[in-house]
Amino acid sequence: MEVAKVRHKFAVGEQVEFLPGRNELHVPPGLYTIVRQLPIEANDCQYRVRHVRDGHERVMRESQFAARLTQADRPGAEKRPR
Questions:
Q1: Which of 29, 31, 38, 46 is deepest in the core (most CB within 10 A)?
Q2: Domain count within the chain
Q3: pLDDT by residue (tens digit) across 7-41?
Q4: In whole angstroms, what separates CA 79 from the centre of its chain?
Q5: Residue 31: DSSP 8-state
């Protein structure tokens, strides 16, 4: 039986959105920048992230991120017609 390898979906420098659940109301929602990929724990990738507004750094699991933003979706990105 082959075991599926868990890999980080996000690279350093990418932005992700965090929407807190009921037990995470102490963590501010919004955009976070990936600072560093951390070791995988319990089949969930971990990251060191920095909040875009306040600059506070924390460790988050990949399952806590709401969505991956494309380059065009990032704040300040110029919208180009296709």
A1: 46
A2: 1
A3: 999 999 999 999 888 888 888 999 999 999 999 99
A4: 22
A5: E
Using the structure block, give the residue that is written with the tokens 């690279």: 11
Has residue 70 been placed in a domain?
Answer: no
Cα dihedral sign for 48, 52, 54, 60?
Answer: negative
* Helices and strands (H and E) in the chain: how many: 0, 5
SS3 content of the chain, % helix, strand, coil (to 5): 10, 40, 50
Please tell me the pTM assigned to this model. 0.73
Residue 26 and residue 45: Cα distance in Å, rounded? 21
Structure token digits, residue 70: 């494309």
Structure tokens at 2: 């082959």
The token duo for 23 is 């037990």
